[in-house]
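Exercise 7 asks you to align residues with tokens for two separate proteins.
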Amino acid sequence: MQLKTISIALCALLNFSPSQVFSQDSVLNMNNGNFKGTTIYLTAVEREAVLSEMRGFVKSTAGIVKGLSAEDMEMVTASARKSGRGAGAHMPHTLHKKLPVSFKKLGSDTHRRFDELALDAEQLGDAGHSLSQLGALLDNCVSCHSSFRIKVR
């Protein structure tokens, strides 16, 4: 089954420690001379809150992929729901004024896409559709990491 092969490959791809990706000195967070995006300056606590939310996205994605590879749509649904709109409720209120509108829109759309994936997985039970939705959702992740860097000030 091609879907299972793709899911297993994606699962292997995501099998990394979130700290490797989101650490202060990781490649994703380095602001080298080639970076043309926006640097966002936050306190250490604010930065950790944003990175914690992103780690949640990675955990949810891993659960979705594992669910798809096992043809377990209940796992897909439960994993996606963990990063839906309710997941951002713990964010410090100080972030609202500091984060660029484009960053907030991308984050909101990502939460919405997780909710939509969960609902469709539950109602349709179509693994191919869920995988397609996950691909579109991951485009948001790539866009964010390509556009923004977070530094502590």
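Second protein for Exercise 7:
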Amino acid sequence: MNSHDFHPTSLREYDIRGIIGETLGEADAYAIGRGFATLIRRSGGSRVSVGFDGRHSSPALEQALVKGVKAAGCHAVRIGLGPTPMLYYSVSALETDGAVMITGSHNPPNYNGFKMMLKERPFFGADIMALGAAAAKGDWDSGDGSEETVSILDRYVARLVEDFSGPAFRIGWDAGNGATGEALEKLVKLLPGEHHTLFTEIDGDFPNHHPDPTVESNLADLRALVAEKGLDFGIAFDGDGDRIGAIDGEGRVVWGDQLLSILIVPVLRALPGATIIADVKASQTLYDRVAELGGVPLMWKTGHSLIKAKMKDVDSPLAGEMSGHIFFKHRWYGFDDGLYSAVRLIEAVGSEGGSLTALKSAMPNVINTPEMRFECSEARKFEVVREVLARLKADGANVNDTDGARVNTPDGWWLLRASNTQDVLVARAEAQDAAALERLKAAIDAQLALSGVERVEAGH
């Protein structure tokens, strides 16, 4: 093939993603491989790491992608099945010039997609659009590339615990049949303490529950395990292993911003005055905690690629998102890694008194909504946010427009933003008490109504 048109819905802000056989297939994989390898060559490189997750469609997409990489004259380093962070790690460990991960992350089983990095830099937004435009014109290099297969799993797992100094806990783990399964089984053998694992068999049908630890119902099995065995806490991962979820010994969810509020303590002890980044969905209590510990809190846009780019800009050692993406530059490489975040959580809980349950109980008592999602078409979602911002500014509201509208009021704050990955508007609110939270939710409802959006929550 000499050129290729991608389905218009598949080129997303952070990755390329679609439904297998409908909006995404092997021809797309070949075009991505060829286009990405062309960029690698034109920037003076020649080696591309390629990995894939446990979805049924992933091996065929990987083969097509490697063909494309070779057709552009590059060398494909195939690292096989494993979590996305293992692929990110391979760029440093194997000295490749870029990487492509075939993964549907936490999407339903019939989806798949591609995440990319160029050297140590995230590849997103305008990069992805340019890849699509070059494919449509057939602006690709030709060559006779090569390939090799490298097993990196054991090296990656050993690196996770290379400088580990945490205590022995009794921990439950849930891999959700996602791509972390084999790595997790190897990791727990290297950690002190007692470890009980669930669903480490990699299975693209996700037969036990969906691998998205931010949805509370997906943590039911982990909760039951922690309760039954009286464990200290539980840790869960998403489908491709770049996000972490956790529950304490009482089964309470420790949300992404709460995990970050624990993880920052040893980092700010080691690096006083460092800038800590969190996304616009994070609690005000997190930003207050960073400041209280002598760090510089920075609120930034939601999205793993956007956060990684911002970390480079401001030289931040640690960042995190509500969704459980945690990014360590301190003692690590700056990418989001669920397994590494788990290792650091064990250390941090150990150094902060040894009980995740006590740390959770001591957190400021605010109440907030989970992430509320409202169906809104691709064409309309960003427009709605613009309308809301215009009305709020006209009304003199205290609004932060870093990413959507985050509005501070005497009751607390609320957020409305357009999802970059789905046809939904995302809202969240946080207040000191239930009555105040209801007032904030009413303010969101009012703004949605003014823009003609029905308050029908989208399914996860």
